[in-house]
Amino acid sequence: xxxxxxxxxxxxxxxxxxxxxxxxxxxxxxxxxxxxxxxxxxxxxxxxxxxxxxxxxxxxxxxxxxxxxxxxxxxxxxxxx
Length: 81
Description:
By secondary structure, the chain is mainly α. The protein contains three helices and no strands.
């Protein structure tokens, strides 16, 4: 049985929260490489939700990054320092 869009978004946000908690544990242990990995995945899951919410498709991590750039950064909806 396939998930609804809302269920998929909730799952990915939950996954983002989970890996963010893992990152905090790794930061406390000064495990920087592991923390960076977990932070990357937290961001990836969150961006995936943003794209899904806006009906923007992507197939891989680099596709999610490209779609974020194209639809949100270039349009000024998201600013990057």
